[in-house]
Design goal:
Layout lengths: L1 H18 L4 E5 H8 L8 E6 L5 H10 L4 E5 L8 E5 L2 E5 L3 H8 L2 E5 L2 E5 L2 H11 L2 H12 L5 H10 L9
Parallel strand pairs: 2-5
Antiparallel strand pairs: 1-2, 3-4, 4-5, 6-7
Helix pairs in contact: 2-6, 4-5, 5-6, 5-7
């Protein structure tokens, strides 16, 4: 079911990107971590999407028309995720910060379950995970660092640029 929903969402997002309704998207979360390190269990798919506010409702409508029960949720000013589309087994986070937009722009296409999927690079995934800061996020960072796929120089530059403390991952 999870991979079916991911495939449906990818079809919708790809079509919207091709139409110019969204600027891009990338896989983040547990599945993205599994693209760069040993697989781990996850109960949902996390995607990051770069979309203008005037196209948000169109995105939700397109997901619903594809058979995905989607709902737009807006958080408060202090909410770490101010704009989220919650859908069947999917959390689609709307990029609102520069590092999120860059994570999408710098994503790398990876074949997962036979699908070509843009995935946040290990370095940007670490920044996203450290910004989120949950216990599972910190474990994911350790897994990513252990994979030896991380460009440590780039990661240090990103951490300095986005004020992320790398000492939290050791």
């Amino acid at each position: 079911m999870l991979l079916q929903r991911l495939s449906q969402a990818l079809d919708v997002l790809t079509a919207l990107r091709d139409e110019g309704r969204i600027s891009g998207f990338a896989l983040i979360g547990g599945l993205a971590v599994s693209a760069w390190s040993p697989p781990r269990a996850t109960m949902d798919v996390d995607l990051l999407v770069l979309v203008a506010s005037e196209n948000l409702n169109h995105l939700v409508k397109a997901l619903c028309e594809a058979g995905i029960n989607a709902e737009l949720r807006r958080g408060g000013v202090d909410d770490p995720v101010p704009c989220l589309i919650r859908a069947d087994f999917l959390d689609i986070i709307v990029a609102t910060k520069k590092y999120e937009a860059e994570a999408i722009e710098q994503s790398i296409v990876v074949k997962i379950a036979g699908m070509d999927i843009p995935v946040a690079s290990p370095e940007y995934l670490i920044i996203l995970k450290l910004k989120a800061g949950g216990p599972r996020d910190l474990l994911d960072v350790q897994e990513l660092l252990a994979s030896n796929l991380v460009d440590r120089t780039l990661l240090a530059e990103l951490a300095a640029s986005y004020r992320v403390e790398l000492s939290r991952c050791s």
